[in-house]
Design brief:
By secondary structure, the chain is an alpha+beta fold. It has ten helices and 20 strands. The strands form four sheets. An eight-stranded mixed β-sheet has the order 6-7-5-15-16-17-14-18. A six-stranded mixed β-sheet has the order 9-2-1-13-20-19, with helices on one face. Strands 3-8-4 form a three-stranded antiparallel β-sheet. Helix 1 packs parallel to helix 5, helix 1 runs parallel beside helix 9 and helix 2 packs across helix 9.
Length: 369
């Protein structure tokens, strides 16, 4: 049996693909419902990454292509493919859009100011419209997926490897599993994962009642959804402080509301519900997918690695991680989860861009400084 710890979008998708491949799976979370943290607060906008090319943009767009097909096929009631318009953040960004266009995901359309105005926008020079993009109902997708799985509430306190299996231990509770997947997000303290550089990014989302019929979703330095059932979503992953609540002073959406009002009529928006939560990201902003290095053993047996010496990497047996999906968790999760499932069950090689080993040597070299 494979136990996945953490029922955010990473854990839910890992459980989905492992189960689809025929594995016996148990999904565990400290909450009685999935997506109780950052995943449930996500706007879950499913769109490509724009930019000047490079590995992260390429990987993001590969994940987007897979994700939008996956959600359409598996969660048709909870994926809204109305398209996403990517618009410049400011005048400098507008100039950079000319450079970005050569690297755009296809298909896309180049919109001018008149086209943007016809869609209900103002003070917008145009942008790139991606017709296959859209947004997902974040908690609903996790909930529906979890209903198809074996799910158990448990506050995991520690992990122990005994014999040939893992013991997942909580207060008065014990699970034994052949393999463990850590999908615990920014709170990754069950094992020594320091080398991964996992940290939190705070995100906020508001659901607003409105009479406006906004036909598309858009992304600037915030995201605004199309209108569905008289509601519209406004959100962003926008605070890096470890104390985000102190910074927002009880108004996490104030900045986003002001930005939205600059480009469209928000006069009848009435806030219905606010969602906030912490996403997790890695040191290099790529997802973290695969085996976990036994850091204490590496440091104990080969202490010279902190001074530049090389040594074979030692991994924890039968344990994997799926983390660091950042503000694009619902874009990355399906493809990363499928890759992890095939690695665990069939030994398929992992993409080196997301393999956790990539992060170890730079981290261990800094320990001596």
């Amino acid at each position: 049996m494979i136990c996945i710890i953490g029922a955010g979008v990473a854990g839910v998708m890992a459980a989905h693909f492992l189960s689809e491949e025929g594995a016996e799976v148990l999904l565990v979370d400290r909450s009685s419902v999935p997506a109780s943290g950052g995943s449930g607060a996500a706007g879950a906008f499913i769109s490509p990454k724009i930019g000047k090319g490079g590995p992260l943009q390429e990987l993001t767009n590969e994940a987007f292509a897979f994700a939008q097909r996956f959600y359409r096929e598996n969660f048709p009631k909870h994926f809204h493919g109305d398209g996403v318009l990517r618009i410049p953040k400011d005048s400098d960004d507008e100039k950079r859009f000319e450079l970005y266009e050569a690297f755009n995901y296809r298909p896309y359309e180049r919109w001018d100011a008149a086209r943007a105005e016809a869609a209900g926008l103002r003070n917008v020079p145009g942008g790139f419209y991606f017709p296959e993009a859209g947004d997902a109902d974040a908690p609903e997708i996790c909930r529906v997926a979890a209903e198809r799985l074996n799910f158990r509430q448990m506050e995991v306190e520690r992990l122990e490897f005994a014999g040939n299996s893992w013991r997942i231990i909580g207060a008065g509770d014990l699970i034994e599993a052949e393999h463990v997947v850590l999908a615990t997000g920014y709170e990754s303290d069950l094992l020594d994962l320091r080398y991964m550089g996992i940290r939190g990014l705070w995100g906020s989302r508001g659901d607003y009642a409105t009479s406006r019929q906004f036909p598309i979703s858009l992304h600037k330095d915030f995201s605004l959804s199309s209108t569905r059932h008289g509601r519209i979503k406004l959100g962003a992953t926008h605070v890096k402080s470890p104390q985000p609540c102190r910074i927002c002073d009880g108004r996490p959406l104030a900045t986003l509301e002001a930005k939205a009002a600059e480009i469209t009529d928000t006069s009848d928006f009435r806030l219905v519900e606010t969602f906030c939560g912490m996403r997790s990201t890695s040191r290099d902003h790529f997802p973290i997918v695969g085996p976990v290095i036994d850091v204490p053993r590496m440091l104990a047996e080969t202490p010279a690695i902190t001074r530049g010496a090389k040594a074979p990497l030692i991994h924890l047996e039968k344990l994997s991680v799926l983390n660091g999906l950042g503000g694009r968790g619902f874009v990355f999760a399906p493809l990363m989860a499928r890759s992890l499932a095939r690695y665990i069950l069939h030994g398929e090689a992992l993409d080196p861009r997301v393999h956790p080993d990539r992060l170890f040597w730079k981290w261990v070299r800094r320990m001596e400084n």
